[in-house]
Amino acid sequence: MLVCAGAGDAWADQVSSAKAEAARVAAEVAKLQPQVDRALADYETALDAVGESVSVSVAARRAYESLQAQATAADVTHDARAVALYESGGPLTLYAAVLQSGDPTNLPQVPMVTGVVARDAALAATARRAAQAAKQRADTADNQISADLTNADAVDQRVSQLQDLLARQQALLDAASAKAQQLQALRAAAEAVAAARAAAAAASA
């Protein structure tokens, strides 16, 4: 009976010691958790800044390419009609041809033809200005990406800080005894660390 009692006391001591160890390690892990949360938030913010710049740049570049295509098409239309008017001899020749035809009803067509060419020129000029403005926006967006990538060490610093904190938490868990690791307090702490690692992996993806 004395042997059994002694064995029971020893087992109770081991359980009590494991519980105390689990509580201590869990408290140390939890103490680091606010720092982990802040580091993860800072990391995601740094990544978002680069991602947002890339998205803005892509949209701006597409808008520029679309407007540039419209400007090119407007120039082609204007040039074609201007060449046709030039090859016909210009407005004076058109007037002369109408007068020689003896049909005055054709006279209004001359300013209409020249007006179309003038309108084409105005539309082409407007399209070029819009394309140029879009190019400036696209260039500005590209420059912002360059600036963000130049400061990409901020992202590296954030992820390094986060990984260091996660490693410290994991080291605390790994150093705990096998008995302590089996207790609910440490299992909950391990799950919290695993969740933080998963969140960090999702952010980097």
Describe the structure.
The chain has 205 residues and is mostly helical. 92% of the residues lie in helices and 0% in strands. The protein has helices at 2-87, 90-101, 109-150, 153-175, 178-181, 184-204. The longest helix has 86 residues, at 2-87. The model is unreliable at 94-99 and 105-110 (pLDDT under 50).
Entry summary:
By secondary structure, the protein is an all-alpha fold. The chain has helices spanning 2-87, 90-101, 109-150, 153-175, 178-181, 184-204. The protein is 92% helix and 0% strand.
Per DSSP, what share of the residues sits in E-state strands of 2 or more residues?
under 5%
Number of H/I helices: 6
Count of beta strands: 0
How far apart the termini lie comes to 62 Å
Order of helices and strands: HHHHHH
Structural class: mainly alpha
Helix content range of the residues, please? over 70%
Q: Rg to the nearest angstrom?
A: 38 Å
Low-pLDDT runs of 5+ residues are 94-99, 105-110
Instruction: Look at the structure and give the mean pLDDT.
Output: 76
Give a quick account of the main beta sheet: strands, pairing sense, barrel closure. none
> What is the 3D shape?
rod-shaped
